[in-house]
Amino acid sequence: MKKYDYKSRNPQGKSVTGNVDAETESEAIEELRRRGLTVTSIGKGGTGKKKSKFKVSFSGFGSTEISFFKPRVSRKDLVPVVRQLATMFQSGIPLVEALEVIEEQAENETMKSVIGDVAAEVRQGKDFSSALSRHSKIFDDIFVNMVRAGEVSGQLDHVLDRLASHMEEAEELKGEIKSAMTYPVVSLFIILFISCGMLVFVLPMFKTMFDGLNQEMPKLT
Question: Most CB atoms within 10 A, among 24, 57, 82, 179?
Answer without folding.
Answer: 82
